[in-house]
Recover the amino acids of this structure.
């Protein structure tokens, strides 16, 4: 199945980017594991003709050179979802956009490069109310694009809390999340 | 963490986020129901301590599985509830529940006396009597029975011609196509044959068992599931994949057999597909070549049944229908229609059932399409009864939209 843009994740960032792109005339699909998306934005996206794969989950990606070409999902099996551009809006730890092991923090879907401190003792402050460093970890995005093994992926745009330095658990990050999603949508729109 | 989690149906993964409660259609309409979180993973903690914590209100769950679609943590909430009903439900099923659930026992009888049965079941004194005596709500339009079953028709009119096709599949027709609406089975055969595919039936086919599971008839359901899996196994061995039309039968076979009935389906599960998925894959890969009728025109609204939503395969149907030239397809906002198989037929559920479906009915009537496209047979009864707008299975729509002769020529 071919789309202009596939958005992985249906939270605030994912739906913001998806709705902006779909209403600008692009053909979009959102893969949303769990309906964390807001009813209003889902309605707007679907009313604009967007495709919503609810309760499904991206399991792997196919890369060619510096591009992500297609993804596969748990439920569609061997049917690939192809697109020109992809938005990664999978969030942080709770939604498994990031996974923390004892010795590393990683992005589980594509193995993207993550900004984190290798010294685990710096990850958290035992004082509950203190700022927590692990919440600042996230995928790298120089120029708004994802990085894998040191090389920039030319059509994969991380947005929202999966990004390094962005977390709604500390202070209100809503505006920053929406802005990151709008930036991704604009960058794709300008192409 | 996921890898080392060993709790049954992932229940320890529940984070108490309550997203499931926001999508539960019953919770919004029936205050007696505690909702998916409390009936499922929360209640499970208590039930594991002692079965006396089992609550009778779990019967209000209509098993639409929307909670599982919404869950961000992969908890099989509806399965937990169904499993608890199986393990701890103490009451023997009522006569009414057994009658509603035994689609394969009542079907042959009602088909044999179809004109009489349909006439009788349509009379208001009969409905009133059923309401009072066995608790089938009097407001409900009861399903019609066909006087000739699909299987009987197939043997007489279609079986012989099937050998002529190089590619063969097995068709799991289910009770609905067989007893209630054989035209669906006939449309299926016509479409498959046009694409150059021969259709075989599995003589051992039994009811998938979904209604029996819902009504506590687990022993019968398990026996039938084993018979079906043997039949599927033989079909796969002989090189025929199994194609189905009912989303609910398919979900039951793929998910409920191993999860609730403990009947293994691992050897056949990759060989079972819904017809829309089967045709979409074939057409996109270029193996199947459709030739569409000229001048076909329709404005249809697509309703994605709950169990299709859970399978995650609704996209195959919409992509397939969008291929039809002249088809204007409006995708309805996802909403349970409220019938949930035998659930809505029960007197105690009728009001809740209609309340659940109301937003969907209002939406359909506001759009006023030529017809509603939907894969599910019980959604069809519910939507037709509640809106007066007819509901067509995508297979029947394809049978109308395809130029069957030209398609047959292109796929020879």
């Amino acid at each position: 199945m071919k789309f202009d843009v596939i958005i992985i994740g249906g939270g605030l960032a994912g739906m913001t980017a998806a709705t902006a792109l779909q209403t600008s005339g692009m053909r979009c699909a959102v893969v949303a594991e769990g309906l964390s998306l807001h009813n209003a934005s889902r309605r707007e996206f679907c009313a604009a003709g967007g495709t919503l794969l609810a309760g499904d989950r991206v399991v792997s990606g196919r890369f060619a050179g510096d591009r992500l070409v297609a993804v596969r999902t748990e439920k569609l099996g061997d049917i690939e979802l192809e697109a020109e551009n992809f938005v990664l809006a999978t969030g942080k730890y709770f939604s498994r956009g990031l996974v923390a092991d004892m010795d590393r923090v990683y992005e589980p879907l594509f193995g993207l490069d993550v900004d984190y401190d290798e010294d685990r003792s710096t990850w958290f402050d035992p004082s509950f109310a203190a700022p927590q460093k692990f919440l600042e970890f996230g995928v790298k995005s120089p120029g708004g694009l994802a990085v894998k093994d040191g090389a920039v992926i030319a059509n994969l745009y991380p947005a929202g809390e999966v990004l390094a330095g962005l977390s709604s658990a500390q202070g209100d990050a809503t505006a920053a999340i929406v802005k990151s999603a709008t930036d991704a949508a604009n960058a794709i729109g300008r192409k | 963490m996921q890898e080392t989690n060993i709790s049954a149906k992932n229940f320890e993964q529940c984070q108490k986020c309550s997203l499931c409660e926001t999508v539960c259609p019953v919770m919004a309409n029936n205050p007696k129901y505690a909702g998916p979180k409390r009936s499922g993973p929360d209640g499970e903690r208590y039930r594991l301590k002692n079965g006396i914590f089992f609550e009778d209100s779990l019967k209000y769950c209509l098993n639409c599985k929307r909670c599982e679609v919404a869950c961000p943590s992969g908890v099989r909430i509806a399965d937990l509830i169904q499993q608890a009903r199986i393990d701890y439900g103490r009451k023997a099923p009522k006569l009414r529940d057994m009658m509603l659930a035994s689609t394969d026992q009542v079907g042959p009888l009602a088909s044999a006396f179809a004109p009489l049965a349909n006439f009788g079941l349509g009379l208001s004194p009969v409905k009133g009597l059923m309401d009072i005596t066995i608790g089938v709500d009097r407001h409900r339009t009861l399903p019609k029975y066909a006087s000739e079953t699909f299987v009987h028709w197939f043997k007489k009119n279609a079986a012989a011609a099937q050998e002529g096709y190089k590619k063969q599949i097995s068709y799991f027709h289910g009770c609905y196509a067989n007893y209630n609406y054989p035209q669906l089975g006939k449309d299926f055969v016509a479409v498959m044959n046009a694409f150059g595919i021969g259709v075989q039936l599995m003589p051992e086919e039994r009811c998938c068992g979904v209604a029996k599971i819902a009504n506590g008839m687990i022993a019968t359901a398990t026996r039938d599931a084993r018979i079906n899996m043997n039949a599927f196994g033989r079909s796969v061995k002989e090189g025929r994949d199994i194609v189905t039309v009912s989303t609910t039968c398919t979900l039951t076979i793929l998910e409920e057999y191993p999860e609730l009935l403990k009947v293994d389906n691992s050897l056949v599960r990759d060989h079972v597909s819904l017809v829309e998925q089967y045709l979409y894959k074939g057409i996109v890969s270029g193996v199947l070549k459709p030739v569409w009728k000229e001048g076909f025109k329709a404005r249809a609204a697509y309703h994605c049944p709950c169990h299709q939503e859970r399978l995650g395969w609704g996209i195959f149907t919409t992509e397939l229908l969008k291929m039809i030239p002249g088809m204007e397809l409006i995708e309805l906002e996802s909403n349970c229609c409220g019938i949930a198989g035998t659930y809505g037929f029960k007197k105690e559920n009728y009001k809740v059932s209609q309340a659940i479906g109301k937003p969907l009915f209002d939406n359909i009537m506001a759009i006023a399409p030529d017809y509603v496209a939907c894969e599910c047979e019980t959604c069809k009864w519910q939507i037709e009864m509640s809106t007066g707008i007819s509901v067509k299975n995508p297979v029947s729509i394809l049978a109308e939209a395809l130029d069957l002769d030209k398609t047959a020529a292109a796929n020879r």
Summary: The mean pLDDT of chain B is 91. Chain B has 21 helices and eight strands. The first strand of chain B starts at residue 167 and ends at 172. Residues 204 and 230 of chain B are 9 Å apart (CA to CA).
